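Quick one, C-alpha cells below. Sequence please?
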C-alpha cells in the first residue's frame, strides 16, 4: 500500500495488474474521492475500483470515453442489427430462458 499525498489523501494501492500500472481504490474510497479520481483518469491515469461482495472480489477499470469512441463501435451495420433485434423483440420473436439449464439447452440446440 502506498499513499499519493499529491493526488489522493487515502491509502491507495499503486501497483501492476496484468502489466498495467494503476491506482487501485476500494469502492468506498472511490465514493469519497470520486472527483479527484475522475480528474486523474482525465489526465491518463489508470484507476481500478475493487469491490468485495458476498465473499467475491470484483475489479472495475475507469476508462475515459470520448465522443469519437462511439463512432468506432456504432457502425451503420450495427445500428441496423440493433433496430432489427428491437423489432423482433416487439413482435415476440424471442426466446425466454428462466434458468441456466434452460439457456444451456437452448444454446446447445443451435
Amino acid at each position: 500500500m502506498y499513499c499519493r499525498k499529491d493526488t489522493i489523501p487515502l491509502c491507495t494501492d499503486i501497483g501492476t495488474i496484468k502489466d498495467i500500472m494503476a491506482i487501485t481504490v476500494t469502492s468506498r474510497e472511490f465514493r469519497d474521492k470520486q472527483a479527484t479520481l475522475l480528474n486523474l483518469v482525465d489526465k491518463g491515469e489508470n484507476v481500478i475500483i475493487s469491490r468485495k461482495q458476498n465473499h467475491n472480489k470484483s475489479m472495475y477499470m475507469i476508462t475515459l470515453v470520448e465522443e469519437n469512441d462511439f463512432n468506432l463501435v456504432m457502425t451503420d451495420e450495427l445500428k441496423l442489427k440493433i433496430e432489427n433485434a428491437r423489432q423482433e423483440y416487439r413482435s415476440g420473436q424471442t426466446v425466454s430462458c428462466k434458468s441456466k439449464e434452460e439457456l444451456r439447452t437452448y444454446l446447445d440446440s443451435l
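The first strand starts at residue 2 and ends at 4. The mean pLDDT is 79.
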